[in-house]
């Protein structure tokens, strides 16, 4: 089934496609997620076959299989970034950057 999905750098910039027909897998998935039925897709694109739609879904299912997901560290919001920038700017006033940065790290407990 997955042999129907091809990857060729000369076709659609190397994106996975259905049998090299210039139907990227992502496009067929977008049609399906937008609510088109396989029958509607096949009626609109006569060079596609029912097995092609099944292959697209099998390919997507294969890509979705993950062993684990690692969460990214919590990021600070814009207000916190702005406050931090103001704090550093104030610390830099009249001091060299390295000394001000070391003081900021000490306050944050990162040294």
TrEMBL record:
Gene3D superfamilies: Winged helix-like DNA-binding domain superfamily/Winged helix DNA-binding domain (1.10.10.10). This is DUF433 domain-containing protein. The lineage of its organism: Bacteria, Pseudomonadati, Pseudomonadota, Betaproteobacteria, Burkholderiales. InterPro entries: DUF433, Homeodomain-like_sf, WH-like_DNA-bd_sf. PANTHER family: SSL5025 PROTEIN, SSR2962 PROTEIN. Signal peptide: none annotated. Pfam families: DUF433. It comes from the Bacteria.
